[in-house]
Automatic annotation (TrEMBL):
It is found in: Cytoplasm. The lineage of its organism: Bacteria, Pseudomonadati, Pseudomonadota, Gammaproteobacteria, Oceanospirillales. Belongs to the cytidylate kinase family. Type 1 subfamily. It catalyses: dCMP + ATP = dCDP + ADP; CMP + ATP = CDP + ADP. ATP binds at residues 10-18. One of its GO terms (cellular component) is cytosol. It is an enzyme of class 2 (transferase). The gene is cmk. This is Cytidylate kinase. Keywords: ATP-binding, Cytoplasm, Kinase, Nucleotide-binding, Transferase. Its main location: cytoplasm.
Length: 222
């Protein structure tokens, strides 16, 4: 049985997380935050003392991950082995670690079925880097969201400011550029738009505008 899927891929900070959540809410569909799964795999490695480049051990650990996502108002609680790690997986270090384990082909393979199981009735909005190219290649609607690296660094900086966390804008920009390069240059599931994806540049668009654009594309395909 296959269920309708909308994929939203793109680099970090392009607005995928917020837009995917709002579109899923508007449609009453499930949400897959695939980046969170890579972040959980990396966190689990750190906690168990597994080197992030030990492909065999990281893949084993990824396959055995005990994780849960509990939707709450305007957010999702993320659990690892029953512990709430929603904040722990959102640090800059966790993001960098996630991108390192995500470059390992057997880790990506180990997490494939787990991600596909999120496709349930009445439908799924899947947020990631390879949702439209690898995980859900037959999705009815594929969106690739982009924004300039400068804009993405500024968005991240503002988010951190609001959370009372001091960060350096040049450091954030460097981190974003390093992660983009790693995601785009890896051999397995590199970050590229699917051939049939619609590319939306969000550099100078509001969240509301992008959500309504995606919703109108979704409605046109139903
Ligand atoms: O989207 P988020 O920033 O949470 O993802 C963290 C990292 O996980 C990304 O930088 C990317 O390297 C990796 N990732 C991936 N494939 C996905 C989702 C995330 O490689 N589908």
């Amino acid at each position: 049985m296959s269920y309708p899927v909308i994929t939203l891929d793109g680099p970090g900070g392009a607005g995928k997380g917020t837009i995917s959540r709002l579109v899923a809410e508007a449609l009453g569909w499930h949400l897959l935050d695939s980046g969170a799964i890579y972040r959980l795999a990396a966190l689990s490695c750190r906690r168990q003392g597994v080197a992030l480049d030990n492909e065999g051990r990281v893949a084993e650990l990824a396959r055995a991950l005990d994780i849960a996502f509990e939707p709450e108002e305007a957010t999702t609680r993320v659990l690892l082995g029953g512990e709430d790690v929603s904040c722990a997986i959102r640090t800059e270090q966790a993001g960098g670690d996630a991108s390192r384990v995500a470059s390992l082909p057997s880790v990506r393979q180990a997490l494939l079925d787990r991600q596909r199981h999120f496709a349930m009735s009445p439908g799924l909005v899947a947020d990631g880097r390879d949702m439209g190219t690898v995980v859900f290649p037959t999705a009815a609607l594929k969106i690739f969201l982009t924004a300039s690296a400068d804009e993405r660094a500024q968005r991240r900086w503002r988010q951190l400011q609001e959370a009372g966390i001091h960060a350096s804008l040049p450091d954030l920009l460097k981190e974003i550029q390093t992660r983009d390069a790693r995601d785009m240059e890896r051999s397995t599931s590199p970050l590229v738009p699917a051939e049939d994806a619609i590319v939306l540049d969000t550099t100078s668009s509001s969240i509301e505008d992008v959500v309504s654009h995606v919703m109108s594309l979704a409605q046109a395909r139903q």
